[in-house]
Fold these 3 entries.
Entry 1:
Amino acid sequence: MNKTKICLAILAAMPYLAQAEHEGTVHLDEVKVVAKKNKASLTQPDIETAKENLSKTAGGTTVVNMETVREGRTSNMQDTLGMATGVLAQSRFGAEETRLSIRGSGLQRTFHGRGLKLMQDGIAVNLADGGFDFPGIDPMATDYIEVYRGANALQYGSTNLGGSINFISRTGYTAPALEVRSEGGSYGYYRLGVSTGGVKDNVDYFVSASKYHSDSFRDNAQQGADRLTGNVGVKINEQVETRFFFGYVNNDSQLSSSLTKAQLKDNPRQATVIPGQGINERNINVTRLANKTTILFDQSKLELGAYYARKGLFHPIGNFGDTTGVIDQESYDIGLTARWAYQGELFGHKNEFVAGLSPTRGRTDAKNYRNVDATRGALLNDFDQKATNFETYLEDRLSLDEQWTLIAGLQYAKSKRDSQDQMITASGDQSVDKTYSQTSPKLGVLYQLQPQVQLFANASRSFEPPSFGELNSLVVSSLKAQKGTTFEIGSRGNSEFVDWDVAFYQARLQDELLQVGAAGSPFASQTINAGKTIHRGLEFGLTARLPYSLQWRSSLLINDFKLDNDPTFGSNRLPGIQRSLLRAELVYRGSDVLENFYIGPTIEWSPQRYNVDFAETLYADSYFLWGMKAGQKINQHWSWFIEGRNLANQKYAATTGVVADATRAFTSQAQFFPGDGRTAYLGVTWTY
């Protein structure tokens, strides 16, 4: 109750922080906006247009400007999304593999990703079964990132609890003619990227190539990736543009083992290797092709999209049963998108309407082999997996007057998971053929308190069927789709001195997909349906422009996730996630004497311990990290940065595994993934 009162007090106070500064504020002149659009891509809105579009949402949304992210290292999702309001992004061991969650989505997923819809340029990156990979997106090729938290992503067809993250690529309209960026630092880290872009008549292009390597802070955690990304746009006329996207990534990752708390405190760099099984690895190779076409009419816009993706996965892990060992998969996914947006009038009021559909289909040849020194041994299992999804949605935004806007939406989703066991073993036939469906409504209200101060509230339903990662675990026959109802209130705004984005939410879930470690193995896991669970929390982003050219930027998460009268664990906290997490920086941004120069401290603070098991017997400790960063854009061609992280060299768990009860026999206590120790990085960018 105290946390609730604090959240409501923050919401009530935020609009008044900007009252004085907003007395004379007006909207951006329409003529200027139209003139800018005429020089830009029709398929790829610029960042200012994206901010304007997201401001029409009656709920939590964020735009991440990659120019700000590039003021430091850009190695993984924690670097790019760590300061995004409402996003939890924690690298498992300094690598690209990240625990990525919004509002507790995919809460106990300790490998790969689930619970979010990842998109690149409005087209899904997820596999058809809902899982996603982190290395497939190159931050050096990204212009900005849109974050739609929860049901606020309905306008893109997302049904998940967490919502959607959309990575918008650079184009010939937004990219420099030539850019070279080099980063290097501790433990053999380097990243080199070269990109080029331009416009010739009605054709624009962008191409980016990058190479990444890190020996990593942890033993047995070497990482490396090669990427090629780009797009070509053709403006057929002033109303029609089509854009072709291509992407290739080859990523090799060693997976360092989890540690006990005693091992972490003694030497967080150490790792254990089981004799005869070698170092755990996760190596992927992805090729992706896509097209997006935008057609403008007098009062409407039609967006059509299609994509094809092929992924190869070679994944040696521990031998346990016949669904681990060496996981060897080939996946092929295709999908279509159609989205129609109309702006007009309804009952004499301004009205905006969006409708769309998104069918996807994927097929995976999934084999498991005995792990013999990280190579394929005897064949253990062979699955033919097919996933199909059909999503259709509509959303209407009705402006009652200059201040009040009502938003109503509806979505229907149907998903089929068909995994045929082609090699029956002693474990029996593990085939699964299940269909899941739900209709999810959404209702919201947006109040324009001042020209740039908004209040909002919404209620929505969420729906998430299990992926094959859940269905191929130890308990499959009765696994249900996760469903929930979420209520959200919040505010966002900006002024001369302060910008904010704050939301308080509560979600009541039924049959939440929760992962627990399998007894007797630190590698295998199983997914269960919990009964009732409650997710509630505060998402708070703040930027304050202070005297003496100082800027405070912060992102605060407060997570209160609990079981709801579970027969075994009562109302215990859900394990595996920080109860609260603050990331912030206080940066001096140079005046006329030191133009475009910045320097200041950074912090990451998890002030409470949090449980690793449902029984609340094993905990990850609280921690406080601090660092420094500095840099400067010297001129239009050269810029540099230097950054130090965890300068006090704290030993801490960045993230953890999850088990049911750490006191039970045969349950591994090695559930902690140490964060990096003291590190330093330097980067230089040359732009022409």
Entry 2:
Amino acid sequence: MIALNRWISGLSPVKRYLCAFLLGAMVAAALPPVNLAFLLPLSFTVLVWILSAASTKKQAFLAGWWFAWGQFIAGLYWIGVAFTIDADTHAFLMPLPVIVLPAFLAIFSGLATLATHMTGARGLSRILLFTGFWVAFEYVRGVIFTGFPWNLVGYSWSVVDVILQSTAYVGIYGLTLLTVFLASLPALFGETETPRKTAMAAVGGMIALFVILAGAGYVRIPAGPVASFDNTSLRIVQPNIQQTDKWKMDRLLEHLQKIVSLSLIEEGEKPRFYIWPETAVPYYLTTARPLQRELAQILSPGGAIFTGAPRRDPVQQKYWNSLNVLGANGEILDIYDKQHLVPYGEYMPLRPLMEATGLTKLIPALDNMSDFATPDKRAKKVISVPGMPPARALICYEIAFPWEIAPDRPFSWILNVTNDGWFGNTSGPYQHLAIARTRAIEQGVAVIRAANTGISAIIDPYGRIEEKLSLNQTGVLDGSLPMPITERTVYARFGEMIPLILTGLFLLSGLLLSRRNPKNIRKSS
């Protein structure tokens, strides 16, 4: 491995950047749905060597930037598919999500490698610092400009349930921290200044830790299914309406009739509750009294329909992407308005600036964009319906933000309605499902997920999928609501405090270790 490190160091900066780009694309292959997690040690090990070969701050930054650009192009290409739905209007903007957005997101990884380089640390201390800075800037990526915490490396364990259970203690960022550290440690075998015994001890220690995590996860997961709440029979409806047709005015009624017909399929006992996807009702349900009464006819006494539907205030002319709960008496029982909107998808950021500079006139697609309103910060996040325990409602990608899940009020399950039909048959819906499963484990509650084109699922509090409807499948999913674990998880009690402390400990340990071993510090440039 020393010879390989020397070969990497001997490459020209441009060739090293190209290598970093390809390694980053391999990281995307380690994530859902490909899940080739064994590629992570190769990717991060060689990235550490490329970073060690950097002789300037610019080279150090570009090492991480090119790596992450490759990762995000390969891992987020599916966002561009949404721009083909109305190709005549939006296709020319496709480079923005496919090329420009990954280039912007890659800045944070570039800052992580730059910060590592500036410490001048070598050997184990450099890997500790690299891991700490990597996760620290992943946090920044997750919050800045409304945030986009998608495709964290920790999600590569989504096919290994026993390891994924560790998120109940350290969250997805904590698991990402441990994963990046483990994947980077083999770089020590390519460094002459690191004794082989030290490298073997570090790698062996981390492997032992993951074996312990796997054992703890195995013990944590019960052998049988989780008990369900009484009298909570439910039906998830997946209509599989293609996005190209969804908002055609002459087909709106047809789409709604399809959802109703699927809901009325006679399969076993009639469910008490119905779960429909995001914007399943393509009308303003809260102000359409006749429609409320019509839809309520499919319900048994004490039942309810949980459905996505746009909502409007006809006086203020405001609109919300909402989740409505319709009761058997034909009245709206509860409402949740989406609070974390998608930039450029559900609203246009900096609209006054865009209009003042004339950009909206140059790009008609932006000029014609209507904004959803953002609810007040004090707006409710937990919905309560008679016969069902309280639920944390989340619409679409809101479920990707782990620190936003737990509100002040307690909840017993998570309801996630979404429409992944924008992204076709790509990796996006699979990544979204992996995120939903992880939130279930972190909070120790079930996730009921209804998606227009899939993947809909009943997920138990250990992240296990009890039942699901595959991508692009039309049908219904019958089941009942799994109960949460007996006590709140460690992560649910303390939230991001735990992974943040771990990240700080990695950075502090790396700094202290580098000071104890001055020979392992080089002058940064």
Entry 3:
Amino acid sequence: MRKRIAMLIGLILILSVSACQNQTPKQIALTYPETKKVNQVDDYFGTKIADPYRWLEDDNAEEVKTWVEEQNSVTFSYLENIPFRDKIKKRIEELYNYPKYTSPMKAGDYYFFRKNDGLQNQYVIYFQKGLDGEPEVFIDPNKLSEDGTVRIWLIGFSNDDKYVAYSRSESGSDWRTIRIMEIATKKELGDKLEWIKFSRAAWYGDGLFYSGYDEPEEGAESKEQNKYQKVFYHKLGEPQEKDVLVWEDREHPLRYVWADVTEKEEYIFLNVSEGTSGNELYYRKLDGVKGEFLPLVESFENDSYAIENIGDKFLVVTNIDADNNRLVLVDPKNPDRENWKTIIPEKPEALSWAWTAGGQLFCNYLEDAYTHIYQYNLEGGLVREIELPTLGSAYGFWGKRDEKTLFYIFTSFTYPSTIYKYDLESGKSEVFHESEVKFDPEAYEAKQVFFTSKDGTRVPMFIVHKKGLALDGKNPAYLTGYGGFDASMTPYFSTTRIVLLDNGCVVAMPNLRGGGEYGEEWHKNGMLHNKQNVFDDFIAAAEYLIEEKYTSSDLLAISGASNGGLLVGACMTQRPDLFKVALPAVGVLDMLRYHEFTCGWGWVVEYGTSDDEEQFKTLLAYSPLHNLEEGVNYPATLVTTADHDDRVVPMHSFKFIGALQEMHMGENPVLIRVETRSGHGSSNTSKMIEVLADQYSFIFYNMGIDID
């Protein structure tokens, strides 16, 4: 039955958002498209679960495409009625329109970097001979499609620095094609490797190792499970059909596998994983393309990765017997754990990453989610802590064994991303490229606070706002989070965030359990049967902002993408009274069937699976789709997804909005925005700006705030 709901939507214009009040909205009639229901019921261990929107899982079906068009028509008609929508879009464009650079990567005599002149849809890849050379365009992805949705990544330089492999994706898909270019001539070779996902190029001899899949059935590329990932060796100049199969496991179709080769091509490592965490590590001496791999670390319960060899021994980062990670030296002739030699022991702070460059070790530690970088020698002796400009995040320090100069990027909430050049011998850093963004850091304030979650856990949160903010509960607030997959949310500068800040908004980012800010224990306390802790943390963060008078429930928006979309979906269904606006983006929202599609099976180690009785009960308890209740006044909701998202497939968002539009009984709009030729994240700059402008407009409009 077509559901017609007349809603009170609008606002009374005010002179300044800094004096915002909840305003009386205007009346606009909204008619949601009809979303049919089918008689689909599944039996989970004796529990019957209806799935009336199962038909929406087939996004290639004509009736689903028609439904998407109808939903988009309603959504964009609504958005077009927001009087300041164009103003916000233009402001985002103004802020984003400045030259942006990435940190240089050295390959032989050449330095590679990416640059966006301002509003280019894709970053252009440049290279130059020496640091003082004249930059030349190496690859310009903007010329590869009319709409700028072809993306390019450099994924591996040959060890003689003669060639570089790059991967190319279309319209935001996770599927990649690998191609090869000769660096000095910029000549693209005829090699073309297809049906690649989640792979790097590991060079050896006159070719490379890569991870690939069998070609999927036509029409099923974006939704069928990705099974039987294999490692191949490709020799330059040969067709893909002649690539050598190096590793496959026919007994375990749902595993990831990828290869790494040491710098001098002495050893190859295989990382085998059953999901997004936990892996086994294998190795063999490289005396040919094929050979027997031997186990180095066996167990999917922990994470271990090799970063380099020292002679015939391996430097390995592991969280075995060390929740915060440690660095050990493993002798493959005696690989048992009791024979491991500790190079850098576990610390109270989490070791986020470690690798070698310039014959040295570089380790990134997190202390309350702030970066600390330490330089060690290969025996584990501390050389120095690298002095960073302020509290924030740093990443980089990549290079081969003979490098003397490295580069890194530093950023924080009020510190635009800046590229630094680092001298290994002196330990001195100097600015290599400073951001040209139009931003006055003195106008804003960033702080870290701690709040108490439901079970008494102390959780940190970053808060950013304009200086002089009155704590009177009348400020709009934007609360965003992730809380999963061991991902750490550290301080970073966002150009587009300025639009929120300049309009009086408080931006808050808590470090929820499930992340990696405090090591593996913090991660485990937010996964599997502990997943509810993540939602409790986020809800407690919202309550803190309200209690401390940063905002109120009528002025609080929550936002998150992917696993963060699950976060928003779960919290808006558990506490619909707490939030005014909800923005679940490309979210995992059907927790009972997520593992049936593309790479969703890889998240079972994080979430659990409905194929297991106890895990089914846990998933059902918080699955956003299955916890919507009829007659509830949910927050104003703008669900966003994209037609080429083959990671978190669109069915999650489709089924969720279908159920939400049926059950929601309040005046708040509940809409879905489906982007075309885009994937798990905007596929180009223009699409990114458009979706952000719509999200920000939706927030302010539904809070009754006018934008000056």
